[in-house]
Each structure stands twice: as C-alpha cells, then as structure tokens.
Amino acid sequence: MGARSGFSPRRSVHGRSAPRPHGQPDLSDTEWAVLEPLVPPPKPGGRPPKHPRRELINALAYWVRAGCAWRLLPHDFPPYQTVYHYWRQ
Description:
Layout: E1 12-13, E2 16-17, H1 29-35, H2 53-66, H3 80-88
Antiparallel strand pairs: 1-2
Helix pairs in contact: 2-3
C-alpha cells in the first residue's frame, strides 16, 4: 500500500465543491450546516486531525451511495482506513 496524497481543497461552485472525478457530488453547504453539529469534534490533546470532518462525511456518503468495498473508495477521499475508523465510532 502506497501513501496517499493529503487533502486538497476544491473551489466551491453554487454552494458545492467542484465535482470530483468520479462524478459524485459532495455535501452542499446547507447539508453540511445540518450535519456539522452531529459530527463529534476531534478529541482534545494528541495529534491534530489530518483530514477535515467534512471530507470524512463526504467519503462516508459516497460509500453508502456506491455500496462499494472500503478499499474501493476513490483516492481523492481520505484513506479508506481513516474513513472506516470514523464509521466504526
């Protein structure tokens, strides 16, 4: 397994991030405003988070819609091991 590139922000287009190469839309700003209070914040102390919570939720939403195996998440999302870790919490 090779290392994956880090998070790279995309420009916002009409309240949504620019389309991903695989064609699945990200959460709109309105959808994120509803979900953000429900997502637990990073634990105090320890290592700072490497991936924004919104990107983790986008990856989880893609996984639910696609019904794919964790390892088949597109590479522009955080690593599948990280997304799976947050799914298990």
